[in-house]
Amino acid sequence: MARQVSKAVDEAVGMKADLLLIDMNTYGGMLDAADSIRTRLLNLPIKTVVFINNNAASAGALISISCNKIYMRKGGSIGAATVVDQNGDVVPDKYQSYMRSMMRSTAQARGRDPRIAEAMVDPRTYIEGINDSGKVLTFTSAEAVKNNYCEGIAESIEEVLTMEQITNYTITEYDPTWVDVLISFLISPAVSGVLILLMLGGIYYELQAPGIGFPLMVAVAAAVMYFAPLYLEGLAENWEVLVALAGFALIVVEIFVLPGFGVAGISGILLLVFGLSVSMLGNDGLDFSGLSMEKIAVSFAVVLVSMSAVLLLFVFTGKALTTSPVFNKMVLQTSMTAEEGFAASGEILNQLTGKTGITLSMLRPSGKVEIEGEVYEARANTGYIDQGKNVLVVRAELGGVFVKEV
User: Fold this and answer.
1) Residue 12 domain boundaries
2) Integer Cα distance of 66 and 68 in angstroms
3) Are 48 and 22 in contact (CB under 8 A)?
4) Of 41, 93, 364, 398, whose CB neighbour count within 10 A is largest?
5) Which of these three, 297, 328, 359, is where a domain ends?
6) With bands split at pLDDT 50, 70 and 90, how would you rate the model's confidence at 343?
7) Closest listed residue to residue 369, CA positions, set 339, 343, 391, 340
8) Residues 9 and 142 in one domain
9) Contacts with 326 (C-beta within 8 Å, 6 or more apart), sequence order
């Protein structure tokens, strides 16, 4: 909704509209989204009017008082802006303090009593004759009019315009396109988290299973759906995308080229987390001053939780997935039985060091090689090796042989 309001505001400014009217009926929503909407409305050079078409609770109250004029339907209500979590439980006071401050400053900016705005958040705010019951304040439409939190009672947008003494007008209603709806869906934190999981998971299985292409297609599609909407919205900048790609490249180098896990791997993880996280934020370069700490924390939390989920997926389902019937149809499969001449004992493998062979499949970095007429599991010592290449065994372990191209 924050994105759609922003688009509507841009459209109103572009067409030089005389009035922006919001038709509101909400029980509330996310604080960071409400703050984004509030900020746009407070800084808008166009006159703003909100018609509370029944409810303006919580975040809706904050957005309403950020408008120049408020009108309410008979029987409507405004208030109850205490910050709660997903379960409806009141969160710690540091969050309430931030909300109280926003409500007060917004009310002051529009010439309304800031104490009343604060009382909509904090039941401890005592206002004689208005909020003296020790409960969070919520106004009915009549009470809002009486206390200068509503300019009048109306039953329709047409009545609102009449009360504003506007008789000759043309209404243009903002109607989001399917592209806007799709972009709004893709940039939501929950969907972004799933796309990150598909990105990393797809690349992992592509690297682990030679001859496979489907996981890579999934990873590329997820990457496009993750970065493209953010890029089109002006959130993801070129350097942020490059940082994320550089982070992933360092992780790949650490896992498949360098022994152990050190500077390259740690740097890669940090760059990947930073690149994916800041891509979701509307920062200006390295300037994050215009963003709330809550929004920044949510962005990094989405990335970290998604990466943790990918790690758990690798640990608990990696083996089962790569051996499933559906997966096997996409992977080069060779049954290595003793009757067919396959060998895997430690003694035989140790004798292979220094011998040459040929790759039966591309090593990315794992695959199959043929050495002296027998087939073995093999792993490229560095990088990838194409199918049909001559290779030299540099060392052998129970899990297979390590080879390099010759």
Assistant:
1) 2-163
2) 7
3) yes
4) 41
5) 328
6) very low
7) 391
8) yes
9) none
Write phi, then psi, for 341 (nearest 5 degrees). Answer: 95, 10
Give Rg (Cα) of the chain.
30
Q: Which of 10-24, 123-137, 390-404 has the lowest mean pLDDT?
A: 390-404
197-245 pLDDT tens trace: 888 877 777 666 555 567 778 888 888 888 888 877 767 788 888 888 8
Question: Is the pLDDT at 344 greater than 50, yes or no?
Answer: no
* Residue pair 137/78 in contact by the 8 Å Cβ criterion: no
Residue where one domain finishes, among candidates 328, 355, 385: 328
- In this predicted model, what pLDDT tens digit does every residue of 86-125 receive, in sequence order? 677 888 888 888 889 999 999 999 999 999 999 999 988 8
